Amino acid sequence: MKTIVIAGGTDGIGKALAATRLGRGDTVVVIGRDEAKGAAFLASAAAVGAGARAVFVPADLSLLSENERVLETVRTRFPAVDTLVFCARHYRTRRTETAEGLEENFALFYLSRYVLGHGLADALTAAGRPVVVNVAGPGADLGVVRWDDLELRRGYHGGAALGQGGKLNDLLGVAFAGRYGDRGIRYVLIHPGVTATSFSGEYDEHTLKQITTMQLYAKPVELALPPILAAIDTPPAEALSAFVEGHRIEVEDDSFDRGAARRLEKVTEGILLEHGSRTGAPRGN
């Protein structure tokens, strides 16, 4: 049986994945900010006799300090982690900064995944066939990245923030696979397609109408799970891979540029250092 950590596991795809893996006998660690939803996860696990294998870690993953606390908790309890899944993100029509002074989408959708991935690399290495599954939006052009304004201080738009976040996660995958691929860790980027989740976010009236229309045609959450489950059960042979609605896409083209990945990693390490984070990529590599 596996130990699976799901960041953003109290709603939508993460919630369905947690229930599915508990049903298959795995230990599932769910991270989320909503303690009521966390309690519901634990109660549902107990109701099916899986209470001993269900763990909820409350945390606001948009805060670096909370990510550090999560790492301490998970590493203490679980020296080996088979699978790390990233699902958490939250749309904001208006630009919002966290209490730590970071733009929220950038902090939650990208920085949290960076910190948790590097912070659990040793625990992943200790597992048999470790895999990181990053549910994002792989394959966009590098042109969506605003290198001189990663936190979108100028001309903010919620859609642009999520679009850039997806590309930053592509580059994160490139750099992560380059660092840890020889340890056996596989990094899988997955876009499941438009899925009927709660579409977590705060929307203006115009955007809310668009979301309501999308929900009418979105696939059920259960249909978004197969490529994620496949990556967990049988990680690809390659250190880095990417899938859009179950179809593999190329990760050797210019949109997954290694130079851009190294550039982003360097910028990210500077941001983490500035904000006092203790976790990041290993120095000197």
Instruction: State the separation between the terminal residues, measured CA to CA.
Output: 33 Å
Count of structural domains = 1
CATH fold title: Rossmann fold
Number of helices: 10
Strand order of the largest sheet: 3-2-1-4-6-7-9-10
- Any guess at the CATH architecture? 3-Layer(aba) Sandwich
Approximately what portion of the residues adopt beta-strand conformation?
A: 15-25%
> Largest beta sheet, briefly?
8 strands, mixed
User: Over all CA atoms, what is the radius of gyration?
Assistant: 18 Å
Q: Structural class, judged by helices and strands?
A: alpha/beta
Number of E strands: 10
Give the CATH class: Alpha Beta
Query: Which shape, going by the Cα principal axes?
Result: globular
Organism: Actinacidiphila acididurans
Protein name: SDR family NAD(P)-dependent oxidoreductase
InterPro entries: NAD(P)-bd_dom_sf, SDR_fam, Sec_Metab_Biosynth_Oxidored
Keywords: Oxidoreductase
Please tell me about this protein's structure.
The protein has a single domain (3-274), classed as NAD(P)-binding Rossmann-like Domain (Rossmann fold, 3-Layer(aba) Sandwich). It is built from ten helices and ten strands. The chain has helices at residues 12-23, 35-47, 64-77, 104-119, 121-125, 158-180, 205-217, 221-224, 226-233, 258-274; strands at 3-7, 27-32, 54-58, 83-86, 91-92, 131-135, 186-191, 201-202, 240-244, 247-249. The strands form two sheets. The chain has an eight-stranded mixed β-sheet, sandwiched between helices. Strands 5-8 form a two-stranded parallel sheet. The longest helix has 23 residues, at 158-180. The mean pLDDT is 92. Keywords: Oxidoreductase. This is SDR family NAD(P)-dependent oxidoreductase. Pfam families: adh_short.
